[in-house]
Design goal:
Elements (H helix, E strand, L loop, with lengths): L1 H41 L8 H10 L7 E8 L3 H11 L20 E4 L15 H13 L3 E2 L3 E2 L6 E10 L9 H6 L1 E10 H10 L7 E7 L7 E4 L12 E5 L8 E7 L13 H72 L5 H32 L7 E4 H18 L3 E6 L6 E4 L1 H17 L5 E8 H10 L35 H4 L11 H11 L3 E10 L21 H7 L5 H11 L4 E6 L3 E12 L24 E5 L3 H13 L3 E5 L2 H8 L13 E4 L1 H5 L3
Parallel strand pairs: 12-14, 18-19, 18-20
Antiparallel strand pairs: 1-2, 1-6, 3-5, 4-5, 5-6, 7-8, 7-10, 9-10, 11-13, 13-17, 14-15, 15-17, 16-17
Length: about 700
């Protein structure tokens, strides 16, 4: 019996020592991460850390912390900073109960989190009673602090939360309690999976099956809390050994209790009789029977899986055949309508009738494209979609797409505009039908979700768009932390004056794309010359709206087929949720990509790129048509004055008037327009303007 007790003590002490060592290594890694946050988040200005960087770093270094479910960092925040903090981050702090954070003396909102614990984002860690006590204790002691055991989300294992205080770099080494509290900048927490930790440890040790191990939190000796192991009545075993555990928190006490799973084995002679042999053979028979039963069950499961696979394949084939049949039945009458419209356009019509018929034909073609979306999706999945390579006029194509939605936006009093940079070639070679399909989908979505403001389509070369962002005041490329300041009268320097989600369509950025020589730098001119030497160009097309925006919780699934922001989207706005998915696939087939920036209640800006070829100078396209062919040539060389106080809108209007051959002078207000036009139509120069264009808002409010 003494030998059995010595063996139990040895095994228990060995397991306690190894558990402390593994726990201590992980604690050191968490402490190092706290120092990293202090160095790169507070010593760097601006901070070198954001949520994406933190999530990527913690994911790539998670092998150093295999015992942690995840880590998260909460920032220390005072009540007077709350409103500014929430406005800067674009979200509202929540308590542990998912309610808005009430007024209190201090907050600790989670701003950085590992993906495995992303549900902690925006939560105020000071709203939980135990979490608040641990945070206060961690910053006063400067040491790691542990919570009571609790069930972890996801694994449902017992675990504890480790909390470190993150101090500002100027904290002295011999700081007092008051100095540590004053220098506290935030708190780093990590969730320990104690059950997995002990299981992993025991699985590596010999004799694991011989003893039972239990780990307890005995901070309150009268009510110990189990952290690992099943409860075993003390009267079931004779031997028990307790080893104390030190996890680094001086406030909490833990211990490991070890006991034999059964009484020490009896001598072999005690079971070498016929009864013992009978028991052994019974066990062997039971094992064989259980193995055979398991084999039969696995075989039956495999057979059912094969049947389900066959049924799924048959259903997929039936679905494809059904879609092909139904799509054909829909396209046949639509092609008949388009054919009749084409014949109608060949008759003698007035300009108005011809415009109506042309618009109807364009709408029919757009509907055919939407019908083909379902078939396109099937082709994407099969990898059989091929792109055309024909020359087309990009400006004519954008005009045609915009005209599809002009009447609808006019009825909603929403401004609709398109701008194509002068650097974009007149003719390019690519797939105009697929290009039109992407543009129609994105503009259609913008029109659908916009009730005031504008929808603005901008086409430029990707190289110039990148240069534009580099030359911008903050050089922002990814659209994050975009902040558009309003003008003195409360409006924004956008097309309609409403705030937009992406500041790169504001006047400060947009003017860099204009072809006026005074706005072009030597860098941009050199870039243009190098572009002309290349056969391929990358187009950058952005569609900006001031609509309802996309909720933050739905932005991750925007490009998922048949998925919409919420259940009310289809009911209120219609649609199937497949358009953006197809647009993404088409953009990638064209050698580009698609992205978006969206802010709820402000709007969205979708941007996609496509690689096309420059068409040779002697290339012509069947669909090419110039604006001057359908308009009187008398416009050429005429001079006009444009009165518009919004710089983006005036630049776009000037661009379209220049396409008609009209020379335009832009002024900001009515008084400047009258001064430029001259008294009684006589100007200071010898050449007087032929036209005066006044925007409606200036005409209605001349002051």
């Amino acid at each position: 019996m003494e030998r059995a007790e010595e063996r139990l003590v040895s095994m228990c002490e060995e397991r306690a020592r190894m558990l402390q060592e593994q726990f201590g290594v992980t604690v050191n890694h968490v402490h190092a991460l706290a120092i990293l946050i202090s160095t790169f988040h507070f010593e760097k200005n601006p901070s070198a850390l954001d949520q994406d960087t933190f999530a990527k770093y913690t994911a790539r270094t998670s092998f150093e912390r295999p015992l942690l479910n995840g880590v998260a960092y909460a920032q220390r925040l005072f009540p007077h900073e709350k409103e500014t903090f929430e406005r800067q981050h674009g979200w509202i702090m929540r308590t542990m109960n998912r309610e808005a954070a009430p007024l209190q003396d201090e907050y600790a909102p989670v701003i950085f989190s590992q993906d495995t614990v992303s549900y902690l984002a925006r939560m105020d860690m000071m709203s939980g009673e135990e979490d608040r006590e641990n945070i206060l204790r961690a910053r006063e002691t400067g040491k790691p602090v542990l919570t009571n055991p609790f069930r972890l989300l996801g694994s449902n294992h017992l675990g504890v939360v480790l909390t470190f205080a993150v101090y500002r770099p100027d904290l002295p080494a011999d700081a007092s309690v008051e100095q540590r509290v004053e220098a506290t900048a935030g708190y780093l927490g990590g969730a320990f999976d104690v059950e997995s930790l002990v299981e992993n440890l025991l699985s590596k040790l010999a004799g694991n099956q011989d003893i039972l191990v239990n780990v307890y939190d005995v901070t309150n000796a009268s009510e110990p809390m189990a952290m690992y192991g099943s409860q075993t009545p003390d009267n079931q075993v004779d031997l028990l050994h307790v080893s104390m555990l030190d996890f680094g928190d001086p406030f909490r006490k833990h211990e490991m209790r070890c006991r034999y799973g059964q009484k020490p084995p009896l001598p072999w002679s005690a079971i070498s009789n016929p009864m013992g042999c009978f028991v052994i053979w019974m066990l062997i028979g039971y094992i064989i029977c259980a193995a055979w039963s398991r084999y039969d069950k696995v075989s039956e499961d495999c057979r059912k899986m094969e049947e389900l696979k066959t049924q799924a394949e048959a259903a997929d084939i039936a679905k494809s055949q059904f879609l092909a049949t139904v799509s054909h039945e829909i396209r046949t009458p639509m092609n008949g309508v388009l054919g009749m419209l084409d014949m109608l356009l060949g008759t003698d019509l007035t300009m108005t009738q011809k415009d109506f018929a042309q618009t109807a034909q364009d709408c029919g073609k757009a509907l055919i494209i939407l019908i083909n979306d379902v078939l396109d999706r099937a082709k994407f999945e099969a990898g059989r979609l091929e792109l055309e390579e024909v020359p087309f006029d990009l400006r004519t194509l954008t005009d045609d797409v915009i005209s599809l939605f002009a009447s609808k936006l006019r009825a909603k009093c929403i401004e609709l505009a398109v701008f194509v940079s002068d650097d974009v070639p007149k003719l390019v070679t690519g797939d105009p039908w697929r290009f039109r399909q992407i543009l129609t989908n994105l503009v259609g979505n913008a029109v659908k979700f916009t009730e005031r403001g504008h929808v603005f389509v901008r086409v430029s070369l990707a190289e110039n768009s990148t240069m534009e962002a580099k030359r911008a005041p903050n050089g922002n490329l990814n659209g994050k932390d975009c902040k558009v300041e309003p003008t003195a009268n409360g409006a924004f320097n956008t097309l309609s004056g409403f705030q937009a989600a992406d500041e790169r369509n504001s006047w400060e950025y947009f003017k860099l794309l204009l072809s006026d020589k005074e706005l072009l730098s030597d860098e941009l001119e050199g870039k243009k010359s190098s572009q002309n030497d290349s056969d391929h160009v990358t187009l950058m097309i952005s569609i900006e709206d001031t609509g309802v925006g996309i909720p933050l919780h739905a932005q991750d699934r925007v490009f998922t087929p048949f998925m919409q922001a919420d259940s009310s989207t289809s009911r209120n706005y219609g649609g199937t949720g497949i358009g953006l998915s197809i647009s993404k696939c088409l953009a990638e087939l064209m050698g580009g990509q698609i992205s978006f920036i969206s802010r709820p209640s402000i709007g969205s800006t979708f941007t996609f790129s496509a690689v096309v070829k420059r068409a040779s100078k002697d290339t012509s396209c069947a669909s090419e048509r110039s604006l001057s062919e359908a308009l009187p040539t008398a416009f050429r060389g005429m001079k006009a004055i444009l009165v518009d106080g919004k710089p983006v809108r005036s630049a776009v209007t000037r661009y379209h008037l220049n396409r008609l051959g009209i020379i335009v002078q832009v002024v900001n207000n009515m008084s400047m327009g009258i001064q430029a036009f001259g008294k009684n139509g006589a100007t200071e120069s010898r050449e007087k303007p032929s036209m005066l264009f006044i925007e409606n808002d200036i005409w209605s409010y001349p002051s």
